[in-house]
């Protein structure tokens, strides 16, 4: 649609941007050794060409089409094949595998582009009146299956793309609140704020291709959540179009009105309605922002240092530490001349060896600071003291600059690997500090067990991100080599092993990717069966005929088995 | 009940503790001038004696009685008149007026004291099976009518007192999490934590007489919420007995599982079930804690300084500023030799007058700091710089020490005033910074208008407490003189004027006292009609026959008119 930016129909990001290994000399040997595939040969498994896709005819009767056209304008209602394909999936590796193969399944029949809360509200009412299905669409970056059309769905499926609703409407400068339309993509939203000296401070990995409405609908967290909070903290008010009514929550710093309606909308994944705009906390762009690199002798030490930092008076912007596996990956993806590996000098490594470090266990960490110059300087001192007391060392600003440059690039790697015979994705959790290291060990063991079970070489790595008083998020990335068919089934064995271990080890099903269909098998274990019933009861009350993004969040199949695997 | 501490049946706090004016020479003249009553004469309107109460026979059949006795033990099931009276009301001024007059209305028929989650779960099931009504009881300090039995209730009413469930069960020292039973009163809970070097940091005005379960059920906030968070932030996991099931939320620092079940329980006021225990954030008792006093030339300046402090890099423990009305009240309640007024020296006042201050507009402020010594010193410097830039002055530690000594005493004043012909209570709200001063002005005007309307002399005063990035809480205290009957109706006119102005001026119906029945007329305006429907739908789903604390939160009468006034 003109004026609305979408990602590649078959993969992550924009056309013309992709991952390259040629300028990263250690990458190919690393992947050959750890994942067992050769990435130096040309892509052996490219996606189908668009012309090869078998796009089914849309199921849309003239009545609904003309009603929708009457509400948003003829030019903003489309059944164009490319439009429908773009709105079919999110960007989980399962989605990528299916779309590359042309396995479209039951897909949206029509895409509409409303331009106001009022238009969205009318579209919602029209869809419900026609007993059709409505799936809200923001940036399409979801990896939990939250955009999935249930396979057996016989009703007309309407994808409501918020892409035209992308404006910063108002800043309350005194309060530090901004009213922004839900369809605004991260960069566009942030650009409008920064022009006036403000920032939302919310930078998820998907930032370039995800929207404010999507962040709220999936309870997203950004890399700087230690300072700015999760989207659940940042969102102070909102508007959501629901069948027959519009929910309006005015911006409030806090309230004792419970059960919290704001928290019902957060993470509702389109099942209660379509979020159209939100009041969010914004802050003045800070005088100074610094991200420093650190090394720890091993992951346990890194975790313990981060824990102590978040029990101290220090208030960092971001705190992150990679395990040795991810550290080795980072070094392997380093560019020849200007990558992170230039900080791993022979002299430094010799020094660390003399200190007694096992360099195979080296862990890379990033900790960032923001505020006035004096505040940033003080925070650096407080953190340095804790890091060095734990036997870590400060590497300096260079790695932090690289971190900032590369922070949104990782998702591109999945397409590159799929082209060459490996499936990669992420799973994240949060747990109390006391459970993090055992959880980490158990998840690594579970993944290794799953690799053995499916008979494929695989790799799993992890970093701690997002710190809280009582615990933190562990963010795992994993890849499995595969041959031909069965890759989704194999991927499922690994994903299921990891997710089940999250719950078993005291973590949540996902720290910041929502429930969708991908994580719904673990909902009852996460919030207990009584909690799942409460969620289900709320959703069913608001949408008794399941017209709104049906099948998400509450799972009705076999516990512990992905809905998608059963299809 | 043996081992369970209750407040006076007719008033606030413990027997033998009450407010005295004799040691506060400015108090009587102040009240005579501002509220129009003479407090120097003996109490002219004491409460009835207990023997004078007309306590109706309990409506409890033998089946339910023996079932309950079988579940919790014969000695923990009581229909004793005093027990039933103690469990009849909370402690709003409406409650106090009614109980002093012996207007008990429909009251609990039986009180049970379970001792475990399992016992509570069985009691819930038994009550629902008998189609009776269950009202959970913590400390009984609620001022929103959350303990009220609906007047027309014909079913047996069972008050479930959590008082025996008062133990600290476990501390996860690595994570900073404590598992505590819901019936633990503030001081007992804090004592058990402090013995091991920890604190929950949650100190609402009601701290001495309220419980963890009550705090969660009403979305409470403590005085130190700027550092420790509201109870909604502090509560990380919990257990709640529901009909036929037990909800268990494991302690998690954060999660993207939405809609948040944790946030459904927070503020649910017994309508979803009985909270039996919770995992809460706890922190190590800080090395240093300091509360300093400050003066501002007027309230607007004080608000602006607090706002700027919370936009800066400073992270205070508590930030509070009184308007000139409350400042004058504080000075009037100052003890002769050692009260706050000793800091209002002639020399200082002369200096401030020379600076151009209008001493009638003087505003007292408290800002507190906690952490390591160096952190506290730095915070004091950061805050002093902002305060003085706004023309405020640092008064020093003395007032802060007095603040800490007196902080839980204010509620006793209401009984003293009722004895002498004035009704006083509080109403609080939260709003964005940009709306605070207009809201304040509008609420003062609305209250003055209400005093005129009812033809009674009255007084209203305010302080800012609880600061957030985007706004703050304004906490109003008001008193009206009254003669004989009609006092509740007169009080209602004032309360309604204040609450309506909160909403009209962009605030929430209550920042930290919940909805109950007292605030439910404003629910639909607070969260919009669609939001009220979502809350109602959730509550009805979980409790279709309204066995659990019926009538709370969702109002079904005339908008803007208190349910209680209509009875």
UniProtKB/TrEMBL annotation, chains A, B:
Domain spans labelled FAD-binding PCMH-type = 104-285
| Top-rank lineage group of the source organism | Bacteria
Q: Which PROSITE patterns does this entry report, sorted A to Z?
A: FAD_PCMH
Q: Which InterPro entries match?
A: Alkyl-DHAP_Synthase, FAD-bd_oxidored_4_C, FAD-bd_PCMH, FAD-bd_PCMH-like_sf, FAD-bd_PCMH_sub2, FAD-linked_Oxase-like_C, Oxid_FAD_bind_N
Entry's transmembrane regions = none
Q: Tell me which residues are marked as the site Important for enzyme activity.
A: 320
Active site, renumbered: 475 (proton donor/acceptor)
One GO molecular-function entry: FAD binding
Arranged from A to Z, the UniProt key words for this protein are: FAD, Flavoprotein
**Which residues hold FAD?**
205-211, 218-221, 269-275
Q: Which SUPFAM superfamilies match?
A: FAD-binding/transporter-associated domain-like, FAD-linked oxidases, C-terminal domain
GO BP annotations listed = lipid biosynthetic process
Cofactor(s) recorded for this entry are:
FAD
Residues where substrate binds? 414
Q: Which family does it belong to?
A: Belongs to the FAD-binding oxidoreductase/transferase type 4 family.
UniProt-recorded name of the protein: Alkyldihydroxyacetonephosphate synthase
- Specify the species: Auraticoccus monumenti
């Amino acid at each position: 649609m003109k004026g609305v930016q979408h990602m590649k129909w078959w993969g992550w990001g924009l056309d013309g941007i992709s991952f390259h290994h040629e300028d990263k000399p250690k990458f190919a040997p690393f992947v050959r050794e750890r994942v067992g595939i050769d990435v130096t040969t040309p892509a052996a498994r490219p996606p189908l060409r668009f012309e090869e896709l078998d796009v089914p005819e849309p199921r849309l009767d003239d009545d609904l089409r003309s009603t929708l056209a009457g509400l948003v304008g003829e030019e903003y209602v489309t059944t164009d094949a490319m439009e429908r394909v773009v709105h079919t999936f999110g960007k989980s590796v399962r989605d990528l595998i299916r779309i590359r193969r042309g396995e479209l399944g039951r897909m949206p029949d029509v895409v509409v582009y409303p331009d106001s809360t009022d238009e969205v509200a009318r579209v919602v009412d029209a869809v419900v009146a026609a007993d059709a299905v409505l799936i809200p669409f923001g940036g399409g970056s979801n990896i939990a299956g939250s955009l999935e059309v249930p396979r057996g769905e016989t009703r007309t499926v309407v994808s409501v793309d918020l892409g035209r609703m992308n404006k910063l409407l108002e800043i309350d400068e005194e309060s530090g609140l901004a009213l922004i339309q839900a369809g605004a993509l991260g960069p566009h939203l942030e650009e409008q704020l920064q022009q006036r000296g403000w920032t939302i401070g919310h930078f998820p990995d998907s930032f370039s291709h995800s929207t404010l409405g999507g962040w709220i609908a999936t309870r997203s967290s950004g890399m700087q959540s230690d300072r700015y909070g999760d989207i659940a903290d940042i969102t102070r008010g909102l508007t959501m179009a629901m069948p027959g009514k519009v929910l309006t929550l005015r911006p409030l710093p806090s309230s004792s009105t419970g059960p919290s309606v704001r928290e019902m909308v957060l993470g509702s994944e389109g099942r209660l309605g379509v979020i159209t705009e939100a009041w969010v906390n914004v802050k003045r762009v800070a005088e100074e922002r610094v991200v420093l690199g650190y090394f720890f002798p091993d992951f346990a030490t890194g975790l313990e240092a981060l824990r102590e930092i978040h029990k101290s008076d220090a208030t960092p912007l971001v705190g992150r530490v990679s395990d040795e596996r991810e550290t080795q990956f980072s070094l392997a993806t380093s560019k020849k001349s200007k990558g992170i590996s230039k900080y791993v000098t022979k002299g430094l490594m010799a020094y660390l060896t003399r200190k007694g470090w096992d360099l195979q266990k080296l862990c890379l960490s990033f900790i960032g600071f923001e505020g006035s110059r004096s505040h940033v300087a003080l925070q650096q001192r407080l953190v340095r003291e804790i890091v060095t007391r734990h036997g870590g060392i400060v590497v300096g600003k260079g790695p932090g600059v690289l971190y900032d440059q590369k922070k949104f690039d990782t998702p591109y790697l999945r397409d590159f690997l799929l082209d060459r015979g490996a499936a990669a994705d992420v799973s994240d959790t949060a747990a109390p500090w006391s459970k993090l290291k055992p959880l980490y060990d158990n998840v690594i063991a579970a993944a290794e067990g799953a690799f053995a079970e499916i008979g494929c070489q695989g790799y799993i790595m992890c970093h701690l991100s997002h710190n809280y008083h009582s615990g933190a998020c562990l963010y795992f990335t994993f890849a499995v080599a595969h041959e031909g068919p069965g890759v989704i089934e194999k991927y499922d064995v690994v994903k299921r092993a990891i997710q089940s271990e999250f719950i078993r080890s005291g973590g949540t099903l996902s720290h910041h990717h929502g429930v969708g269909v991908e994580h719904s098998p673990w909902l009852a274990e996460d919030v207990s069966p009584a909690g799942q019933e409460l969620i289900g009861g709320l959703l069913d009350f608001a949408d008794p005929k399941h017209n709104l993004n049906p099948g998400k969040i509450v799972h009705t199949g076999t516990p512990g088995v992905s809905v998608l695997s059963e299809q």
